[in-house]
Every structure is written in structure tokens, then in C-alpha cells.
Amino acid sequence: MTIEILMPALSPTMTEGTLAKWHVAAGDRVEQGDVIAEVETDKAIMEIEADADGVMGEILVAAGTADVQVGTLIARMQAGDAPARSVAAPTAAQVASQPVGLAPAPTPLARREAERNGLDLTSMAGSGGHGRVTREDVVRAAQPAVVAAPLAVAPAGEQPFNTVPVGSMRAAIARRMVEAKAAPHFYLEVDCRMDALLAVRKQLKERHAGLEVSINDFLIRALALSLKQVPEANVQWAGDRILHFGRVDIAVAVALDSGLITPLIRDAGSKGVREIASEMRELAERARQGGLKPEEYQGGSFSLSNLGMFGMKAIQPILNPPQAGIIGVGAAERRPWVEGDELVVATVMTATLSADHRVLDGATGARLLARFKALLENPLDMLL
Domain named Lipoyl-binding: which ranges (predicted)? Predict the structure, then answer.
């Protein structure tokens, strides 16, 4: 029996992807569950597994082919115990005759390295199998390109410039930001005194050797509890209806060299700070390696973005569609603070809520932000 292998939809919003790599060739015997190929989306590289035992037949879409539509027939497999056959490697002439984009097709790592260095892969010679361009090829080409390549010159009188290709992640971010700004934003801002939270964090680290809990982990916990206590903010606009979520999933912005990704802390309202810290470290590490699964960064009911580590006093974040809100925070810094009738010096952090006015009103946003502030300034309430 012939099994048709189609380009999979690795997420609800995926419409196309790059067939990054084949792990098998025509004639190879495979078992159910074997990884047969890798597909690259705008966020990560995912594996395709064989659905049955059999022998790989025709491969219809070559490794490295970009913009393959979901549902496209990419290969055929013979199920059962069909005899394996040997397939000769293509000759140099056959490889050379293939169109650009099929062979020599770059590896995903080569593509990322080329994007980082602003190099064009279409004319680059590859040292990999079948003439494929590898990361090492790009690294070798990058040094002379960076040192010796002249600047592209704009029309007379204008500033010289370099041209850098738009990577798949940056293109996806651009599309989503246009979509996000179509929603009517409103902004609310509040200053939070952080001295009590810093003291609690210090005590926890002193009492529990090796405990790694960041300020960001407390922020995630505070936002999750705030949404549980103000559930009318844990919603989403869906055109002809409003979705009210029964669980709080927090998307946390993580900066990458090529853009931004938002791994999810699912059901964050039921997790303590230690558990959030452990999960966040693991997700962030895999995010930087491009190893997150779509369900680990798509969805979520609210987002958190922290630029405090860069010394920013405050930020006005853009919504993470289709979510209804995001809280952005700046640095916790020493500032003048009025306490009663006295002026003191305190550690203060500015938090800004960006909200979708189609589904959240100012009063609802204000209650949420007030709750967030109260939990940060009274951190023991987060531990109950």
C-alpha cells in the first residue's frame, strides 16, 4: 500500500514552511516513529515521523525547499515489507542541473549563519552531500565578505548602506506587528516599589542553597495571580464573540539573535515561583537553540515583556495577537519615593499595560494593574 506524505501543519496558523532536511532516502526501510524529515517554521525546526513501517519510495520535494504549502505531497512510502532498493547518488552533472533552491540547498544552520552575516546563498558553493551548503561554508565565506566587501552605494547624495536579507523569523514578526497595531491599544502605567520583593528573594536564596529565582519569575507569578483575581481581563477578542479563559497561560518574551519568541508558562496561576523559575529556564534555553515545539510558544492568554536588564526605565509594549493584553516592565532602580509625609529613596519599577480596547476597558485594565502592583509590593501574598 502506498502512503502519501504531506507537508504537515505544525501549528494552527502555519500555512507554509521550509523542508529543511530528509533523514531518509528513496529505498530506505523505516519503522513507525522514525524521524524521516525536518521542517523549519518561522520559530523552530520540527521533526516529521513515519506513521507506519515500510520502505521510502519517491521523494518529491527536495531538502532545502522553502515556502512549501501545508498539504503539499512531499513524498510517497510503501507500507509493509516491500523490499528495499539501492538508489545511486546523483552525479555531479545531475546536481549542477538542478534549479537554485533545490541543490545546492543550504542547511538550516547555514541559512541562519548567512542571515546573520548578510550573505547571499544562491551563488555559494557547498561542501556538503550533493553540493549542499553547510554552516562551515558560510563561516568561511563570512570573514572575507565582512572585511573586504564594499558597501552598496545608494543614489548620489544619499547615505551608503548594506543590504541584509529578511529572515523568516523577522518576516513573521513584521506580519504579526502589523496585525497587532490594527487592534486599538490603550496604555496604563504604574510605579511599583520593589524593596519588599527583593528582600524576600534574598531570604529565599539564603535559606535554599542553589535556588535560582529571578525577578522575572516573581513577575510571571504576580501577573498570573492578578489574572486569576481579575478574571474579566483573562479574555480574548474573537470577532463575533469574546473568549473567557478558565486557565492562565503566560507568554514570556525571550530575545533571540534573529528576533523574539514567547514561550508559554501554562497554568501559571497554579505554579509556585520555584516551579516557574525551573520551567522558564528550560524553555528559554531551548528557545535560543530553536528547539521549541509550536504548542510551547503559540497561544497564551496574556504576555509579559521585561527590558529591565537593558536599563530601560519603562516600555510601551505592542500586543501579542490575538491576546488582549501585555505588561511591559523596565528596570528596578533607586528613585525618590513619598512614604506617608516623608521623602525616601526606594527601589522602583515602572509597569505598563497595553490592552486591546475591543475587549478590555480602562477600568478593567486599571484593576488588573493595581492587583499586579499590590502583589509585587506585598510579595508574601504570592506565597499563600
Answer: 2-78
